[in-house]
Structures are given as C-alpha cells and as structure tokens.
Design a protein that fits this description.
Rossmann fold, four-stranded antiparallel sheet, 10 strands
Length: 227
C-alpha cells in the first residue's frame, strides 16, 4: 500500500542571480513498511526533501501525498497538527526538553494532542529501546546514545505514518550509531514502521531496504535491496 507520493517536487530559494533550486522535480513513491535511505553530498537537497516530507517546509511546486492527503497544501497550523499526529522526526541533536523527565519527553506529542496513552505500547517501546529504567531521569543524566533512544521513543509513541530520521547517528560514536540503526530496523520490522533516513554514511544506508541518491536536487538513483 502506498503511504507517500511526491509529484514533481521543486523547492527554489531566492530569485534572479541568487536563485537556487534545492529540489528540481522529485518524483517518489514509498510503500507502507519500507525502510528507505536517502544519500547525497552536503547541499544535494536531501535534508530539504526530508523537511518537505515532514511538513516542516513547503515545496515551491508539486504535491506531497501522505496517506492520500496533500500536505503541501496545508497552512502552518494544519501542518503542525499533521506532524504531531502523522510524522515522527528524529534529528542528530536529540531536541529533548532539558527540564522534563525522559517519560514526559517521550509522551509529549500525546500530551500536546490530549490523547490517551496506550501504556502497553509505551512499555513495549521503552523496553525494546532499553530505556525502561531511565524514565524518571533528566536528559542531561543520560548518555548521547540513551538520549537518542529517548528521541526515537518519542517519535514512535503516537504510531506515526512516517518516521523521518535526519542523520540520526551523526552525533554518536560508531558503537552507539550501529545500535541506533539496529533499533530503527527493529521498529521497521516489528511495528511495520515506514522509515525514511537521511545519511551520508554508506554503511548506514546499506542497512535499508531501498537507497535513493540525490545530486543537485534531483533523484539520480533508486535501488532496492532484499530484506
């Protein structure tokens, strides 16, 4: 089942001599449950694409369909609600609220939306991520790897349609980075979570089912791998 579709996505910054085409006609379809890696050099447009897929930014032209809804047509308020309900975002800098416990950080999307917490699912997530014993700690009491696990838990707790990860291992050492990729693969396999991961690390990309390569705002390669 198709969960994401991009039709001729373009993103232009500036005008005249300062005009820059960050994305130049991206067409893409992603099926539910796919684990997709997006590779490209710095400035290739991969992070711009991720922000547009998550409704953080709007394309200059084109449609972005998520579960049949064109998020590119949403206003700022609608896009914020959409992200909170449908998109999990993971960055290399964990963006945890320093004054809140790990439990409250993880549950924040549900609390903001005044949604009931599914305690069984919450427990399943924190157990599988290995942070069940860290829930009452503050972020600064955790290691970088543990904070990234909490950020992943926060992005999974509301069962998003899409999980978007922007260089999630970029701020971690090799061992912790490998563990985070393994955890993403686990959520993909066990929860049938659709994941789109931005990375410049070929080894990380090779863990995905499918690898997209972007150059100068254009999709130049789309290869699939067996699970």
């Amino acid at each position: 089942m198709e969960i994401l579709r991009c039709d001729n996505i373009k993103k232009v910054y500036g005008a005249g001599d300062s005009r820059v085409a960050a994305l130049d006609g991206i067409n893409l379809s992603v099926e539910k449950g796919e684990f997709v890696a997006v590779m490209g050099a710095s400035g290739s447009g991969k992070s711009t694409l991720l922000h547009i897929l998550g409704g953080v930014d709007k394309p200059t032209e084109g449609k972005v369909m998520v579960e049949g809804t064109d998020i590119a047509a949403m206003n700022r308020t609608q896009a914020a609600i959409f992200r909170r309900r449908k998109v999990g975002l993971i960055y290399q800098f964990y963006n945890l609220i320093p004054t809140l416990t790990i439990r409250k950080n993880i549950l924040m999307p549900l609390l903001l939306d005044k949604r009931k917490v599914n305690q069984e699912y919450f427990r399943q997530i924190v157990d599988s991520l290995g942070i069940a014993d860290k829930l009452e700690a503050l972020p600064n009491q955790l290691s970088g790897g543990q904070q990234q696990r909490a950020a992943i838990a926060r992005s999974l707790v509301y069962r998003p349609a899409l999980l978007l990860a922007d260089e999630p291992t970029g701020n971690l050492d090799r061992r912790n980075g490998e563990e985070i990729v393994d955890l993403l693969k686990l959520s993909n396999r066990n929860l049938n979570q659709t994941i789109i991961l931005i990375t410049h690390d070929e080894k990380v990309a090779l863990e995905a089912d499918r690898i997209l390569t972007i150059e100068d705002g254009r999709l130049v390669s789309d290869s699939r791998r067996g699970k």
